[in-house]
Amino acid sequence: MKDFLAITDYSKDEILELLNLAIELKKEWKTKGNTPRLKNKVLAMVFQKPSLRTRVSFDMAMRHLGGDALYLSPSEIGLGKRESIADIARVLSGYVDVVMARVFAHEHILKLAKWSTIPVINGLSDYNHPCQAMADALTILETFGRFKDIKVTYVGDGNNVALSLMNICATVGANFVISSPPGYEINEQHISLAREIAQENQGFVKVESNPKIAVKNADVIYTDTWTSMGQEEESIIRSKVFPPYQVNQELVSLAKKTAIVMHCLPAHRGQEITDEVADGSHSMLFPQAHNRLHAQKAILLKLLS
After folding, report:
1. How many domains does the chain have?
2. Using one digit for the tens of pLDDT, what is the confidence trace for 274-294?
3. Does 113 lie in the same domain as 147?
4. Counting CB atoms within 10 angstroms of each CB, which of 56, 139, 142, 167 has the fewest?
5. Are residues 188 and 283 in the same domain?
6. Residues 45, 175 within the same domain
7. Domain range holding 228?
8. Cβ-proximal residues to 162 (8 Å cutoff; 6+ apart), any chain
9. What residues are paired with 76 via a beta bridge?
10. How is the chain classified by DSSP, letter by letter?
11. Would you tell me how many other CB atoms lie within 10 Å of the CB of residue 268?
12. Are both 136 and 125 inside the same structural domain?
């Protein structure tokens, strides 16, 4: 494992190994505090898009493991603008031990990985969000103790978060259903690939446009913002299309009584999710956000070990 770019790059056993390592590190941190497993190691954090959770969780992950993190803002690097990505990758390879990049275009992540001689982690791209998916899977595993026969229903935009969630569910053998408005679905090619992976791992991937049907017997209801960064011009149109896909108390009542509600945050309360649900008894929004820290510690440790 040189880089961490996409969930589909890894087998079921590799993903489960990372998740079990995350659980071990989380328990260790709670009982013993920080451990200097990555002492003298430095992470460079390259940002094109801002993020509360990505920046703080990666920074604190390195601190927990005894290393250090360096934040590089969009204006400091100008990835692919002030300097070519290939040159940036080769320069950083001589300064730090690992790079995490949060970018608009997935091709930028691929170029960084191609030209870097050190590990590269995808902190988010327009294609996927694998670090978020690891935290999601960790939260589901901690809650239910298994993935088999767990039904995860995603309601909303078929975006990068939905894609990575679908792929990790397929990989670990959880059942995945997605419900999106017409025209906002995940690409059929990606659905087909996920179905193949799910079949290999005794799970399934289904598409159901009606959210009320999709959440029936669900163990997990997951949603995300209707308009992601870079799509602001579409916000008015999306605000008219997506209201039937809001995760509210009525929708949650159609799932299992033990169902949990998840959201990668930031949440636009009153749009894709109501306050009643976000702050209610089914909500796992904040434990899920905190698990970013522990899932990413496992990724960093695996790449740098």
Report:
1. 2
2. 999 999 999 999 999 999 999
3. no
4. 56
5. yes
6. no
7. 132-288
8. 154, 156, 178, 180, 186, 224
9. none
10. ---B--GGGS-HHHHHHHHHHHHHHHHHHHHH----TTTT-EEEEEESS--HHHHHHHHHHHHHTT-EEEEE-HHHH-BTTTB-HHHHHHHHHTT-SEEEEE-S-HHHHHHHHHH-SS-EEEEE-SS--HHHHHHHHHHHHHHHS--TT-EEEEES---HHHHHHHHHHHHHT-EEEEE--TT-SPPHHHHHHHHHHHHHTT--EEE-S-HHHHTTT-SEEEE--SS-TT-GGGHHHHHHHSGGG-B-HHHHTTS-TT-EEEE-S---BTTTB-HHHHTSTTB-HHHHHHHHHHHHHHHHHHHH-
11. 14
12. no
Side chain identity at residue 164, one-letter code: S
Three-state DSSP class for 158? coil
Average pLDDT over residues 242-252: 98
Note whether 47 and 148 are same-domain residues: no
In a domain, 2, yes or no: no
Write out the catalytic residue numbers. Answer: 102, 129, 132, 224, 264, 292
pTM value is 0.97
Look at residue 1 and tell me if it is in a domain: no
Residue 257: give its domain's CATH number.
3.40.50.1370
pLDDT at position 56 over 80: yes
Distance between CA atoms of residues 259 and 221, nearest Å: 7
The β-bridge partners of 176 are 152, 205
How many angstroms separate the CA atoms of 277 and 268, rounded? 12
What's the rounded Cα separation, in Å, for the pair 182 and 276?
A: 27
Residue 74: pLDDT over 90: no
Q: Domain check: are 281 and 141 in the same one? A: yes
| Dist CA 189 CA 167 (whole Å) | 12
**Does one domain contain both 59 and 103?**
yes
Residue 254 in domain: yes
- For residue 112, the one-letter residue type is L
